[in-house]
Design brief:
Blueprint: E1 8-9, E2 15-16, E3 27-28, E4 30-31, E5 37-38, E6 54-55, E7 78-82, H1 83-86, H2 92-95, H3 99-104, E8 109-113, E9 116-117, E10 130-134, H4 140-145
């Protein structure tokens, strides 16, 4: 679907456009000043990598953690997981079966890294490109959302 939309200029160099009736999963690029097409710098999904088109996503999510009060920092035991190296599959979903084992070890807080989209399929994430997009090769935002589970 090719569509041209007027952009509203906002503060600090940002532009905004509202496009109606864009189905979730639609791929899109920006073309400014009739130059080369570029992905959305505020993309929430880059399923074909950092140079490919951005994907329209539904940001709605039924959060189920309203009663969670958090943990006191002094009682926290952190475990940093590199998503791409923690399991042979290297995905967010592949980590889930290990959560009970980590809890049984006394781990109370997990730091997932990297999460933001970066070039390639395995990376430390220091050269993240799309801070609002979850790394597609690690399962993307849909797989990361599966982490929402009751805290026991």
């Amino acid at each position: 679907m090719e569509k041209s939309t007027e952009l509203d200029h906002k503060e600090n160099g940002y532009f905004q456009a509202t496009v109606d009736e864009v189905p979730v999963g639609s791929l899109y690029l920006f073309q400014l000043d009739e130059s080369k097409e570029r992905p959305d710098p505020a993309s929430r999904s880059q399923p074909h990598g950092v140079h490919g088109p951005s994907e329209a996503v539904d940001p709605a999510f039924p959060w189920e953690d309203k009663g969670w009060q958090g943990l006191h920092l002094e009682n926290s035991i952190f475990y940093e997981i590199h998503t791409g190296a923690f399991t042979p599959e290297g995905t967010f979903g592949a980590i889930i079966p290990y959560l009970d084992t980590l809890r049984d070890l006394g781990i109370t807080t997990i730091e997932l890294m990297p999460v933001a989209q970066f070039p390639g399929t395995r990376n430390w994430g220091y050269d993240g490109v799309y801070p609002f997009a979850v790394q597609d090769s690690y399962g993307g935002s849909f797989e990361l959302k599966n982490w929402s589970m009751p805290v026991t």
